[in-house]
Amino acid sequence: MAVSAGAGAGSRFGFTTGQVIQEFLYDDDVDPGVREAVEEATGNELVDEDYDDVCDGTLIWWRADDGGQEELTDLLVDAQSNLDDGGGLIWVLTPKPGREGHVRPADIEDAARTAGMQATSATAAAPGWSGIRIATRRRGH
């Protein structure tokens, strides 16, 4: 039996009731407890990367074999363009150190900086995943 992210995980990410959260790079290795907690916190199912309307936040499941810093930078820019007024919460989730697919936090921070964003905080998202919050800039600011 998989260990879940635990109660309150969705709100720990800063997501609230009514928000639409877009998910990128979903695969069979993601933590279902994180997904369920976010859906419970928002009251909405996660939307996939093909969603073509504005959203309020983003979860990106990022592993070493998903690409390098340049690819992550591009994905962050794409994710930000889908956010309402260009602002909102972006979380990059990566396997914890010592697990297959781990990405160094410094690599995520560099990608965010290159995209004109900033890594602001980190959390243990789930037993096998770490999360880094990326702050976006609102359009017109």
If you had to describe this structure to a student in words, what would you say it looks like?
A hairpin with a 2-residue loop joins β4 (118-126) and β5 (129-135). The protein has a single domain (19-135), classed as Vaccinia Virus protein VP39 (Rossmann fold, 3-Layer(aba) Sandwich), CATH 3.40.50.150. It contains four helices and five strands, in the order αβαβαβαββ. The protein is 28% helix and 23% strand. It has 141 residues and is an alpha/beta fold. Mean pLDDT is 88; it is low at 1-7. It has a five-stranded mixed β-sheet, with helices on both faces. α3 crosses α4. The chain has helices at residues 9-12, 32-42, 69-82, 105-114, and strands spanning 21-24, 57-61, 89-95, 118-126, 129-135.
Entry summary:
This protein has helices at 9-12, 32-42, 69-82, 105-114, and strands at residues 21-24, 57-61, 89-95, 118-126, 129-135. It has 141 residues and is of the alpha/beta class.
